[in-house]
């Protein structure tokens, strides 16, 4: 039986996410991101297309590496202005029954005690459809906004993140027993105090002495996403993540998937414990010619300045100091190391800045598939076969046009081939993807479940 392809829509609570300049296209509706109607309509569209979830990106700073200031990002709305992604999710949940919600939240600037309550609340309000994309941040501007001089070094951020996860696991999994809430109206007892446990944590980076403020949510721990592709990021993902977002060419994705699966095995986790999602953009038309015409139309709206603002932020390299025909060389810094590595050390070619703009201005650093529904479906199946991914995070070129085209043209072709669901299964987001509402027993969070003696 063919593997069922999993799909997330990749979006962000801003005007322009990854396709620089496409906000100027007359059919793009990104500027309506401030209106709940945009998010409600998108959620209903994705549920009609049987998407597993919507994956919401986020950044907590402005892209100010290019030219040493945020001017280019502001002119081209390169992920700024950007609103809080968490706040649109409960509204989308009311408009849907099955769609999952993976939200990016940076752990570097929010105490775990407060964050644990926020995610438990979200899991309650969505009926167990909440997921957390665990990130540590990569913009110095975010660190300065949080009152720091600069962000913490790359690998140290992950060391701190490991301890952060231990704290939130203790709160989500170990503070309240499953039967702590009894709602005994006759005797006036809502929760049994003896079954709610204080969490004591004295670590290198975090201290905590408190009970979790929320009663257990449907999933307790939200579904865990992760997108770090550096060596340290892959190790973190192998230990903690249930879903991993990988980007790059088939060759790079295949290598990273294999590496993460091998690292996961060292943590006692199996092939079925982690789903891999490759980043892609799709431009589809009824025919090959129609899709190619759409691609050429989109290219006319590219704004190189916006693309370079994003690329500079991701890589930590100020491309205003380069000419368009200069080659990209590897630079070690504390930005997104995996993107720099993919374009230099792991690339089988030399990239010039001009080529990077042409490649990355539509859909960001991930590949783009262009063609008819049959061609797109062939390519998606090829990715599954060649890289061992389980599905895709689909970025848009125009919103919501890219998602409408995919739902109306590609989804029926995938369903015809028997590689995509006809209907949703029941239950929480984790139950839909893994068959269980709670984290599996071989996940590191399981050791923090209350065992009758301590938490």
How many structurally independent domains?
1
Give Rg in angstroms. 22 Å
Whole-number average pLDDT? 93
Instruction: Give me the CATH fold name.
Output: TIM Barrel
The strand line-up of the biggest sheet is: 1-2-3-4-9-10-11-13
Order of helices and strands: EHEHHEHEHHEEEEEHEHEHHHHEHEHH
- What's the architecture in CATH terms? Alpha-Beta Barrel
- The poorly predicted ranges are none
User: In DSSP terms, counting alpha (H) and pi (I) runs of 4 or more, how many helices?
Assistant: 15
Structure class: alpha/beta
Based on Cα principal axes, name the global outline: globular
**Binned strand content:** 5-15%
Distance between the termini: 43 Å
Largest sheet: 8 strands, parallel, barrel
Q: Report the CATH C-level class.
A: Alpha Beta
Please give the share of residues in helix: 25-40%
